[in-house]
Fold each of these.
Amino acid sequence: MSRFRLYPTPPQQDALLEQCGYARYVWNLALEQWAMWTPDKTAAPGFAEQCRQLTEARAVFGWLRTGSQTVQQQALRDFDQAVRNFYAGTHRRPTWRKAGLHEGFRIVGSQASRIVKLSRKWAKVNVPKVGSVRFRLTRAVPDAKSYRITRDRMGRWHIAFAVIPKSIPAPGGGEVVGVDRGVTVSAALSTGELLTCPGLSETEQERLKQLQRRLSRCRRGSNRRRRVQVAIAKLHARAGDRRKDWVEKVSTDLAGRFDVIRVEDLRVAPMTRRPRPKPDPERPGAYLPNRRRAKAGLNRGILANGWGQLVVRLEHKAVGRVEKINPAYTSQTCSVCGHRAPGNRESQAVFRCVACGHQANADVNAAINIAAGRAVRARRETPPWVSPKREPQHATSA
């Protein structure tokens, strides 16, 4: 995706929101049809049948006919692709689209080629039922057959062109790097570099806390509550923009410097799920503590450091050069002698091998193991560690 900032006028913003509403309505209607299907019934209507039903509905309902047919048909096509991805096992189940949260639509065909360059920094695109909307030129506009217009929670509009990004060529020197992702240090490289993803400053974090407290005192549905929600969304969007910028810069740098990039094979989505409640067997209807708040803090740390985004962008820019390594025992294994023991990890930041005495930064030591690709091999070579407290006590003869 090649994304640009869109700058519509106030009347154009209203027209864009109206088209978003049509796309959201058609998507939710298709989802309702698909959700009502059961094995004892006939097959749920597909894309072709839903397009025929849409044509009949537009002929009957005038309010639906005022929207763009291209936008509504593409919403059906997007839903059909989402269902295919779900059955293929690559994506999650399609969900409902909500106003204010999922605002956007897609345009394909001849409309995508109606882009006029106004100056060195500005261009305009023709949007059905809206007209020509200006957008900021920060790079060359790609030759795409479709584009998507979206609106985020803080009210910013963007236009994204669907293109396959070009991969960065390998330097050819045979260099291999290991990347260890963490919460305190966002990415530690086997070269010794420690990279930290920028987030909100202390002043911005304090401002966020004040806004969240103010939000809890606002009456639901009030104008004051909406203003506070927008202010909170702006802070979150600012942190998200900084995270994306950091991911793009780091992924570009790694793809251009190294031939092989090895990362831990982590499943970020299951790792950041909330813990399941634990029913109390002695008290029906009550639950045992499940460390939900501690897990929520860890989840925020993982997501704020862009674990998943970094690997995805590395796979886009260094095609075929990203290798995923089993993360088992990489933080407990010495990168010098290969000895593994929980006692090697003296603290969160310090690694000291109990066998050879090697001392290094814990994250860098794990990154070196990842670069060597020996996470599983080191585990097999090292005998299992036995705690002194669990050693069997030999009986003494009387």
Note: Residues 27 and 79 are 6 Å apart (CA to CA).
Amino acid sequence: MHTLLVIVFVLAYSAIAFEHPLRVNKSASALLGAGIMWTIYAVTTGNHHLVTEQLNENLAATAQIIFFLLGAMTIVELVDAHDGFEVITSRITTTSQSVLIVLIGIVTFFLSAMLDNLTTTIVMVSLTKKLLDNHEDRLIFAGLIVIAANAGGAWSPIGDVTTTMLWIGGQISSLGIIKSVFLASVANLAIPLIVVSFMLKGKSVGKKAEKNGSGTTTKFQRDLVFAVGLGALVMVPVFKEITHLPPFMGILTGLGVLWLVAELVHKEKPDEEKEHLTIVHALAKIDMASILFFVGILMAVAILENTHILTALATWLNKTIGQQSIIVAFIGVISAIIDNVPLVAASMGMYDIHQFPMDNFLWTFLAFCAGTGGSLLIIGSAAGVAAMGLEKINFFWYVKKISWLAMLGYIAGILVFLIQFKLFHG
């Protein structure tokens, strides 16, 4: 049974990794793989009560992540529908590209920590389209935005799907991840940003930003929805610390508050005029294929955990490589080729939470490496895939122009992380 489960998982994983050449959506591969694996497990085990119990347990853990993502994505979509992000974009007016890249890098870094790296990439790449005429210039900016978004997402419990998974799973705390990873994330961005800023010295922006307001919302409404939406996201870690309830309850409560505010500010408008400003419309714009991908891959990894295959793999890695930091750094590099969600999900199953408690070196270093390692290739992260689609970035162009910068940042971040850990933990 174990061999068969591994074969099915590897085949599903390969289909996910080669999604673009195969032209098969990764969500389909993940769901099919999970379905086949659970079927094999149920048929060969014979203990239907045990299988059902394990399935329900894993479904509950997966549902927490899914509800959190649904809530966060809906909040972001509603803010975007109100042109709320113009609060940020309208304030960037410099005419120097070397200054602009630094501003955009810094804004992306912190915005990604508050929202998430995927959403921030979409917002910031859209901004550069309004600021720059030349497509080649915009490609450089898009590449740096990917690095900045992934670096920013790595030190926040809500900035990246993988850190959210570790946070909800109890492997990291909100304060623990910030203290452990922030400086390493800064180094991860700072090195490539400094290099590119010097490369762009003397180049002008060429055209000023255009306002992107839809004309259907007032400045007050845009600012209000942006403030409430951002507040709802930022308050989730605080909500968890105070109530000790799971993060998905915090995000759903915040969504309820934002929903109420949106309904009240538009209550006088006719239905057809406010239709695109409603939660219902925001829900319709959510990428449900990505949500189903997370369901499929997390349920597939759960089988490997229940059958102790991942525990055996962890034991083998420890015996073969031994050095935990090398294993985790390698996982980060691999995440540039293979989606970091299943990699982190697999790592969570490989290492026992009792042996490696909350905020252990393993978990915080994994959050950093898996979050930032994806920047090494354009297909290595959700942020990269989004930028690739928005600016039609060629895979090999990214390898030639951006990958080496991302690698410099990745190495710098690892060094800072290890030095900081050594200083504070001996």
Note: The chain has one domain: 2-425.
